[in-house]
Amino acid sequence: MHELSIVLGIVDIAASTVQKANAHTVDRIELEIGELAGIETDALLFAWDTAIKNTVLAQAKRDIHYVPGKARCLDCGNVFDMHQLYDPCPKCNNYLNEIIQGRELKVKALTVS
Amino acid sequence: MCSTCGCNQPADAVTITRIGGGIHNHAPFRALQFHLLGEEHNHNGHSHQPVTIELEQDILQKNNLLAQRNRGYFEAKRILALNLVSSPGSGKTALLERTINDLKQVMPIAVIEGDQQTTHDADRIAQTGAPVVQINTGKGCHLDSDMVLKAVRQLDPPNDSLLMIENVGNLVCPALFDLGEGGRVVIISVTEGDDKPIKYPDMFFSANLCIINKIDLLPYVPFDVEKAKSYALQVNPKLRFFEVSALHGQGMDKWYDWLKTQFAHFRDYQHIH
Fold first, then answer.
1. Rounded CA gap, B179 and B23, in Å?
2. Which of A31, B7, B64, B76 falls between 20 and 30 A from A9, CA-CA?
């Protein structure tokens, strides 16, 4: 259940941003989560409600941008959609691929007031 | 609420225990000051207009920064740190016991043990004579770089040594948390399913080496070694494998050769190869 650690990390980031901005609370938080980031979204949402209680995120609207996984085949150069870390290149069936997108795990933006 | 897994244990429930040193320190972990921000904040008469801050901050940044700090410490002291990850019961501690007993004349080895509860594993390691610190994560499901930083301070491993960090037995959560290690070793045992690598791909994706343990039991279980390797290579084509029985010693020589080579390489180049 590392998703709860992740949410608590988000709370930490939000709290320090609020403090730096001399603000009071977070109105909106924008997250970016990659398909291949190792995060189970359902578990994250499950953890969210508990973890944000009595924090600056308690009233925040949450927007999550999901980033689809993409990889480049290191053999033929083909760029393809990767849904699992073990997906081969659909063109040449090679497993040696470079992930170019989908490992994101970010707080993109915060609206504070 | 604890900040590791969100259970109701207090924030200082993680304990770090030096075995044999007589020190039992309840290290204070991560004060949860942010809970009080709302109450403490003083407006001094100014108003708050909503403002959007484009942060673009990695959520794991705090862990990653501390991991880099650990990494710098290890590099400066030429300590090769290996993060040993696996599901519970794969034989990590047995592997360490035999490895330490066989290699302690060749290189100094220190150990950090991670478990939710008890010092059983650290007690076993202490029997080998190796310096060892036990981290008890309480309800926590993985080690993080902050725990390792505090454990390393207590352990104070010598220069030019090998540091084995035995993570909490869990094939999921530890994958995301860099500890500052020089290499990651994933262990599976033949009493598990041979499809573990694609059931838990994140752990195999981030590993440098895969040890297949308990091979002495192969005649009695349906585990297909080649199938397991082939699955693991789909996730991580650069992964290397050793097949061993930590209990009886088969195949351990190749693992020792790997350790010796990496140990020497790390001292010269500060990375493994």
1. 23
2. B76
Contact between B190 and B214 (Cβ < 8 Å): yes
Identify all chain B residues contacting A50, using CB atoms and an 8 Å cutoff: 1, 6
Supply A48's token pair.
């969210």
Is this complex scored with an ipTM above 0.95? Answer: no
Contact flag A113-B49 (C-beta cutoff 8 Å): yes
Residue B89 has pLDDT above 90, yes or no: yes
CA distance A41 to chain B (A): 14
Amino acid at B61: Q
Give the pLDDT confidence score for residue B42 in this predicted structure: 52
Q: What is the pLDDT of residue B152?
A: 97
CA gap B206, B34 in Å, rounded: 32
User: Smallest Cα–Cα separation from A80: which of A63, A97, A66?
Assistant: A97
A14 CB neighbours in chain B (<8 A) are 34
Task: Indicate the residue type of A23.
Answer: A
**Residue-level pLDDT at B38:** 41
Contact B1 A108 (CB under 8 A): no
Q: How confident is the model at residue A2 (pLDDT cuts 50, 70, 90)?
A: confident
Separation CA B273–CA B261 (nearest Å) = 9
B238 CB neighbour count, 10 Å cutoff: 8
Q: How many Å apart are CA B52 and CA B64, to the nearest integer?
A: 25
Q: A20 to chain B: nearest residue by CA?
A: B53
* Side-chain-side CA neighbours of residue B28 (13 Å): 3
In angstroms, the Cα distances linking A98 to A34, A67, A101, B235 are 15, 16, 9, 12
Task: Kindly determine whether residue A112 and residue B235, on different chains, have CB atoms separated by under 8 Å.
Answer: no
Among positive and negative, which fits the CA dihedral B196, B198, B203, B207?
Answer: positive
Q: What is the DSSP string of A65-76?
A: EEE--EEEETTT
Q: Taking 70 as the threshold, does the pLDDT of residue A109 lie above it?
A: yes
User: Pick from A5, A29, A55: which is nearest to B52 by CA?
Assistant: A29
Residues of B in contact with A23 (CB under 8 A): 48, 51
